[in-house]
Amino acid sequence: MHDATAVRTAGIEEQLRLHPNVRAEVDSGYAGLARDFPGQVSAPPKKPPADAGPSERNFYDYARRHQSPRRIMVEHANAEVKQWRSLQRRTGERADLPEVLATIGALVSDRSAKRPTRSRPSMELDLVRATAC
């Protein structure tokens, strides 16, 4: 199933409608969602064609560089889960999948908690963050 289709069937699209102050950074797989919710969902710009002029290429590079720092934590979280992919073949029955995912999530969370951080972690939920761009 395509990423954006999964988001819509999971009800996230409806949640974006119900909570217009929520913002999301997504990858290029969610370009349609960013198109449908331009003030809430931010996707990277489309890569310019090979015959594009320098101004178009410069805009693309600028937009990618400015989105990258906002997405790096999400990409690292996705990468950590994929490090446990070797367990995927040994997940057993489909009914066991929620328990397997919870176990992998706990392993990733434990490993992340042991890592030193530069900033002091906060337990407050930050629903809306102003984005500059």
Task: Summarize the SSE layout with pairings.
Elements: H1 3-9, H2 12-18, E1 24-25, H3 31-36, E2 41-42, H4 54-82, H5 97-114
Parallel strand pairs: 1-2
Would you give an account of this structure?
- By secondary structure, this protein is mainly alpha-helical.
- It contains 5 helices and 2 strands; from the N terminus they run H-H-E-H-E-H-H.
- Strand 1, helix 3 (31-36) and strand 2 (41-42) form a beta-alpha-beta unit.
- The longest helix has 29 residues, at 54-82.
- It starts with a helix and ends in a 19-residue tail after the last helix.
Q: What gyration radius follows from the Cα positions, in whole Å?
A: 18 Å
- Chain-averaged pLDDT: 75
Number of strands: 2
What is the 3D form? globular
Distance between the termini: 31 Å
- Give a short account of the largest sheet: 2 strands, parallel
Q: How much of the sequence is in beta strands?
A: under 5%
Oligomeric organization of the protein chains: single chain
Low-confidence stretches: none
Question: Order of strands across the biggest sheet?
Answer: 1-2
Compact overview of the structure:
About 50% of the residues lie in helices and about 5% in strands. It has helices spanning about 5-10, 10-20, 30-35, 55-80, 95-115; strands at about 25, 40.
Short descriptors:
two-stranded parallel sheet, 133 residues, mainly alpha
